[in-house]
Design goal:
The chain has five helices and no strands. By secondary structure, the protein is mainly alpha-helical.
Amino acid sequence: MIVIGWLAGRTVIDLISSYDHWLAFGLLAFIGGKMLWEAFGGKDEAKAKKNINSWFTLLALSVATSIDALAVGLSFAFLKTDILLASITVGLTAFIITVFAQLIGNKVGALVGKRAEIIGGLILIGIGVKILLEHLL
């Protein structure tokens, strides 16, 4: 999905190059804001402990992840990023972090779960602000 988003972005780059920094900022702020919203959303404990192995939950999670990856790929196109290196880096990083998180998730998740989501959201918003400021200043 990252590559598909990048391809979509590359096809429209000439049409939106004058405001691509605003779009990259918006996408990163949206994703970061979504992470913050979920962290502060006050989820029920019953919902938080829901069985994620049901087919509907897995399908919903995979679609949500794919949409986020598509948005990131679109941002990569506007930033003129080397998509091969970026997609390999994202894929390997996601794989390594997933394996690591699976191993320690149950032990550490209760301690840092929301804080990690908050930090991640703030980092994405910060990157978006950085991109915007670099183009405006």
